[in-house]
Model the fold of this input.
Amino acid sequence: MFMIEYKDIGWRYWLVTAVLLTFGVLGEPIGFILAISLTVIQLIHFIIKDRSITSFPIQVRVWYLMLLIIALPEPMQLIFWIPCIGTWAQVIFGYCTMARFVSLLPWNRAELFSLKLLIKTFFSRPVKGSVQQGFSASEKLQN
Done:
C-alpha cells in the first residue's frame, strides 16, 4: 500500500517538494518559488544522471515544472493544490498522476488511445519505477 522509498534520491526530491508546496498552499508563497527552484535542480540532476532529455522520468519532471510555472501567477495559485495533493500521493503511495498523463502522450505509448486505455492508466495500482512498467508489452499492443 505505502511506497515510502527513503533511500531513493528521486523520492526525497518529491518529499521536499511536497513539503514546500504545502507551505505555499498554507499561505507562505515563498514555498512555491522554492518548490519550482527545487524542481529545476531535480530536473538538471536527472538530465545529467540519465544523459537524456527525452527519457520518461525527464518528461514527467518537465511537465511537472510547467504545471508549477503555470500556477505561479497570483490569480492562478489555486492550481498549486493539484500538484501539492498529487505529490503527496506520489510520496506516500507511489501514485504519480503526472506520470500517468505523460504515459498517454503519443510518443510514450504503443496502444491506441481509448477509454479502456484511460481506465487502465488511471486506475491501475502504483508500481515501483515507471508507470510504463506496470503494463506488459502485450497489454500495450492490444486494442
Notes: Confidence is low (pLDDT under 50) at residues 136-143. Residues 9-141 form one domain.
